[in-house]
Predict the structure.
Amino acid sequence: QVQLVESEGGLVQPGGSLRLSCAASGFTLESYSIGWFRQAPGKEREGVSCISSNDGSTFYGDSVRGRFTISRDNAKNTAYLQMDSLKPEDTAVYYCRAGTAYWGKGTLVTVSP
């Protein structure tokens, strides 16, 4: 069964850090680019970051550049999103996507005092 499963999010204080993981099963993640997206309450889903499948090149949205870091461990069939210096406006449901075909179900990250 093909699945992408994000790790549990949670409540983080402003300025704090959290690492999300995205574990693939039923297919090899190495063959796919990985994207992280988020959807805040009342807003459209937006792209956060992505990493290519071939050379590992990365892209970040303006709102997270310099604070978030995307990575992948092909041996573990898992991708990661390290989130530092979190802000209340980072509160959202975070989703990972492999290529354009496979989506995780999402995990809620809340940044609040």
